[in-house]
Amino acid sequence: MTREVATISTKENIINAAARMRELNVGSLVVVTKYEVEGIITTWDITSKCIAVGSNPAESLVFDYMTSPIHTGTTKMDVLDAARIMAERKITRLPIMDENKLIGIITFADIANALNQFTKDVAGSWKTE
Q: What is the pLDDT of residues 54-72, one digit of tens each?
């Protein structure tokens, strides 16, 4: 899980969202208000929902193009639980909540890294002498 979650306000425009993604080298931003997670905006949302339909990104708000509601996970789930939710929901990012507070995000890259490490750990334990 990545603990430093890139976020943005619902009131920001799409230009600012895209610039923040570029600055942070991420493909999504969790959309938050003062008290809660409202949604998620991805590069796909920006290109397919805003730019591709001819909307002006400087005049378009994140709120209007974000995906909402979003599915979230908890700190009590393991990697396989997260992967199962992501596969069932056909999503590539899963914000992780703890007592209604955003504490991280899991991506498919995180899952791939965890499975790779698991494979190395298991394969390493099968070595014969």
A: 999 999 999 999 999 999 9
Counting every residue written for the chain, the total comes to 129
User: Phi and psi at residue 90, in whole multiples of 5°?
Assistant: 55, 50
Q: Residue 102, exposed/middle/buried by CB under 10 A (0-12, 13-18, 19+)?
A: middle
Tell me the CATH class for 7-124: alpha beta
What is the edge-to-edge ordering of all strands in the sheet holding 101-107?
A: 73-74, 93-98, 101-107
Give the start-to-end residue ranges of the domains of the chain.
7-124
Q: How far apart are CA 105 and CA 4, in angstroms?
A: 8
pLDDT tens column, 1-57: 889 999 999 999 999 999 999 999 999 999 998 878 999 999 999 999 999 999 999
Rounded to an integer, what distance in angstroms lies between the CA atom of residue 55 and that of residue 105? 29
- Report d(CA 12, CA 35) in Å as an integer: 16
Looking up tokens 């069932």 gives 88
